[in-house]
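INTERNAL TRANSFER SHEET
From: sequence group
To: structure group
Subject: Arylsulfatase A family protein

Please process the attached sequence and return the structure record in the designated field. Keep the field labels unchanged so the import script can parse them.
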Amino acid sequence: MQGAAGTTGVAAKVAAFLIAATLAVAPVAAQQVTGVLGSPSATTTIPGNQLPPPPPKFGGVIKESYKDSKTWWPPRVVPPKGAPNVLLIMTDDQGYGVAGTFGGVIPTPALDRVAKAGLRYTEFNSTALCSPTRAALITGRNHHSVGFGVISELSTGYPGYDSIIGPENATIGTILRDNGYSTSWFGKNHNTPGFQLSASGPFDQWPSGMGFQYFYGFMGGETDQWTPYLFRDHTQIFPWLAKPGYNLTTDLADEAIDHMRQLNAAAPDQPFFVYYVPGGSHSPHQPTKEWIAKFKGKFDMGWNVMREQIFANQKRLGVIPADAKLTPWPDELKQWDALTADEKKLFARQAEVFAAYTAYTDHEIGRVIQEVEDMGKLDNTLIIYIDGDNGTSPEGTLVGTPNQFTAYNGVLDVPVEEQLKYYDDWGSATTYPHMAVGWSWAFDTPFKYTKQVASHFGGTRQGMAISWPARITDVGGVRNQFHHIIDIVPTIVEATGIKAPQEVNGIKQKPIEGVSMVYTFDKANANAPTTHKTQYFEMASNRGIYHEGWYANTHPPLPPWELAAAELPIDQYKWELYHLSEDYSQADDLAAKMPDKLKEMQAIFDQEATKYQVFPLDNQAFARAIAPRPSAVAGRTVFSYSGVTAGIPSGNAPNILNKSFTITAEVEVPAGGGDGMLVTEGGRWAGYGLYIVKGQPVFTYNLLGLLIARWAGNGPPLAAGKHSIVFDFTYHGPGIAKPGTGVLTVDGKAVRTLSIPKTIPFLIPPDETFDIGMDTRTGVNDLDYKVPFRFNGKIDKLTIILGPEQLAAADQKKAAAAVAKAKD
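Return from structure group:
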C-alpha cells in the first residue's frame, strides 16, 4: 500500500508539472491523462498552444544503482478522446459542373457516397490556381499570406509571392502530428519551390518539413500517369518498371490503402490524417483504356447541349438556386453546331477521355474510402472531399492537343487532321493530351470563365462534400453558406478538439485566417448565415471581393487560354458588381446601377489586399517567370559530371534552349563499341539525348514530337577504350525557336553535320529529369532504344557549356508565359 501511495504521489506531482509546463492558456480541464504517468502505457493530451510541447520533467528516481532507482517514461502524446480520423481529399482541375454529385454528366459515386452520408456545399471556393489553393488548404491562411500569390515558377521577391510557406504558418500536418496524429500525404505536391526540388534540399518546404510523416506522390503541377516523376518521401522511385499496366491513379490508392493498413496493424487506436490529392483531372488526361471505353459516344451531343443538361441537373439536385441563371456562352468560343464533322469527332473523343479520367480518379478515391470502412473506422472519420482545386483547365487551347507540351511551347493550333491520327490512342502512354476550351467552359456550368480566373466563379467555385457519421446526422443535406478553402484547417481543428498553436518550434504563429464550418454540421443551422463574411480573390491582377452577400470583381482583360501577358494597366480594369444573395451565377452586373456600392466594395478589397500581402499587384501574368529567383545553378554556364547520375530536376539542369551549347563526353567504351545513354533531358514529348547505339554515337533532338532530328556516326563501331564525343550546336538567333546547326564529333573528327529549321522554344517537360549514364521515364527516340538504357561503359567526365541566351526582349515574355503555364 505504501508503494502504491508513493506511486500515486509521484504521478500527482508529474501531472502538476505537466500542467504547469504546457498549459499556458488552456484550463486544467483540457488535460487528459490515461494510465499511470511514468508507465510505458501512459498517454496525455496537450493544450496545443506550444508545439512541440516542452518535455516533461523526469518523474522517477535515480540512485547510484538501478536497484535503488525507479524508471519513468514520458507519456505518449495523443489527441483528445474521441478525436476523429481525418481523410482530406481534393481532385485537380475540376470545375463546379464536372461531378455528377453537383449536376455534371460524369458519374462520381465516391463523391456521391460522401454527400449522401453527410452534406453538400454549394458556395465553397478556391483561389483559381492549383498551388495557391493547396497552400491555403493546408495552412488555413490566404494564399498571399503564405507566399503563394502565384505558383512557385512565377514567384517574386515579395512576401505574398515568394512561394515559401514560412515557419510562422504551420500546416495542419504539423498541428495534427504534434498532437498525436499519424500524418501522411498521397498524390500531388505543388507547394515545394521549384528551386528546392533537388536532392540537396533544403527539405523544410517538402511534405516532411510540413508535418507529414509519410509522402508518396509527385512534386510538380502535373506528371505523366504512366511514367510519373514520383517520390517516396525524398527518394525518386520507378514502380512502373516492375508493374505491367501501371497507372499512377491506381498506384496512389494502393499505397494509401497499404499505409492505412500498416497504421491500423501497428497502432489501431491512433487517429490518422490522410491528405489524398491525386492528379486527376489535370492534364495529361491518361486513364486506362477500360475507363475510356465506358464513355464512348457519351459526348456526341456537344458542349452547348451538355451545358444545358448540367444546368437542369443542378436545379433538380438543388445544388444551385431555383432562380439561378445560366450565364451566356462567350463569343470567343464556337457553338457546337458550327463545328465541322471532324472537329466534332475529335472534340467528343477529348471529352470522353477527360470524363474517363475523372471517373477513374473518383473510383480510386472510393477504394480508399472503402478501406476506412473495412477497417471499421468510417463512423468516426471526418471525410472532406473537395471536387477540384480550381475551375476546369483552359490550357488545352481552342482545339485541344495530343501533346500538352505543344501548347506550353506556344503551338496553339495543332491541326485537327493531325490530332485525329491519335484518335484511337488518345489518353494512352503515346499521348499527353488535353481538351478544347469549349469543354472547359461548359464543365464550369453555370458560371463564366475557367481555371486561372479568380474574378469569376468559373475559376473558383468548387463542389464539396463532408461526412462524419458520428457527428453529422443531417445526411444528404445541402449547405449554401459561403465558404473558402482557408476554412478547412479551422474546421479540422475544431472537429478534432485541438487548438491552433500560438507558437511552433519557438516561432510565433500568424493567426488562422479561415473560419470553422462545424456550425453547418447541425441540422438546426442548415440555413444559418455564413460566418465567413468577407473574402478577397486575386490572381495575376484579376480580382474579386465577397462581402456579406455582395461580390465585386474585375473583368479579365484577355481570356486565359491565350499565352500573353495583359497589356491593360491595372487601374483600368473594368469592375462588375453582383448581389449574390439574389444572383448565384454572376449573371446580372449592377455596377452601372449602383456605383456607390461598387466603390464601397472596391475599398473593402483594398483593405483586405493590404492586410493579406496581396500588393503589389502584377498583371505581367506569366511573364514573371523570367524574374530571378534563388537557384543552386543560377548564372552557371559550365556544368561537369562523371559516372551515372539520374533524376536531376529541370531547375538544376543546364538550360540549352534558345542558345548555343556544347556537350563533351569523355568516355571509356567496352569491347563491341558500347551501348547506352550518356546524357539526356526530356523524353517522348520534347528533349534531347547524346548516346551510343551498337557502337555508333548519336545525338537526337526531339522537337515536341513534331520533328525528331538525328545526328549519327556511320563508320565502324567505336573501338574499345577512351573516346571524346562532342556535340556542338550553334543557335541562329536572336529570337525564340530559331534554327540551328549541330556538329557531332568523335575524337576530333566531325562525323555528322545537320541543320534544323526550328528548336524547342520554351520548355522541356519538367516531369522528365536530366539524366547522365541512363534514361528514366520516357526516351527521346523510341526507335533507337528503350529506357533505362544504362551505359555499359564508363563516363569519365561529361561537360556542358552554355552560350548566352539569345532572346529578344519581346520574346522573353512569351517564353516565360509558356513555361509558367506548363508548370501549373
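Handover comment: The first strand starts at residue 33 and ends at 34. Confidence is low (pLDDT under 50) at residues 1-29.
Transfer complete.
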